[in-house]
Amino acid sequence: MPFAAYRAPVSLAPAHEAAALPAHVPLAVQTRGDLVESVHYGSIAATAADGRLAWAAGDATNAVYPRSALKPLQAVALVRAGLAVPDELLALAAASHSGSPAHREGALRILRLHGLDATSLENTADLPYGASEREAWLRAGCAADKLCQNCSGKHAAMAAVCALNGWQVKGYLDPRHPLQQLVTKTVAELTGEEPSEWSTDGCGTPLPAVSLAGMARAYG
User: Is position 52 within any domain?
Assistant: First the structure.
């Protein structure tokens, strides 16, 4: 006989009533035949050479956590503090990586150039980010490792800058540490705004919230 399962009403109220949703706009539409299958919302910001917001779509002033998009800004702070490494290692410090042997060895090179080793890293341990790299790592019977984490190049450079400046390496992720104070100052300078909120990134680094317009200004 026909059976109808009872389902309790589902509340569609936002989990966090106080959080205002950003005013994103449709940026891309995917169709299948004559029907719209999905609409992808977002925001865009473009700045002029002088840092002025020249064009925007959606909400370019809403605060966001840039996550790994902050790495180049953090790298600027590190270079200003004396980091001087070959270009390929600077690129590793300013980017995420897949955890390949070359990437892990690159992070180690940054550390060793400054009298440090992998024990100086304070980022979270992880498996390699790249699918093939992760599979090879697991097949070798290896566990999560700090050098494999996709931000280890940045963390190696942060520890190196601490050694260069005579700052305590241990605790370099503390927001009160001179290194993080320098990074905060640099992010504010490059984006043209003070971070409105703070959190912690997946790798353990202090994470400021800035606007999309601010990030466009920094990259410009």
Answer: no
User: Tokens standing for 94?
Assistant: 């300013």
Q: Considering the entire predicted model, what is its pTM?
A: 0.87
Sign of the CA dihedral running 158, 163, 167, 172: positive
C-alpha Rg value of the chain to the nearest Å? 21
Domain assignment of residue 7, yes or no: no
| Start-to-end CA span in the chain (Å) | 67
Q: Say how many domains are in the chain.
A: 1
Encoded tokens for 38: 């999905």
Separation in Å, CA 114 to CA 23, 54, 166: 46, 43, 11
Is 11 part of any domain?
no
| CA 78 remoteness from chain centre | 16
Tell whether 145 is covered by a domain.
Answer: yes
Q: What is each CA distance from 109 to 7, 30, 47, 87, 105, in whole angstroms?
A: 58, 45, 37, 13, 6
Domain that holds residue 135: 67-219
pLDDT tier for residue 21 given thresholds of 50, 70 and 90: confident
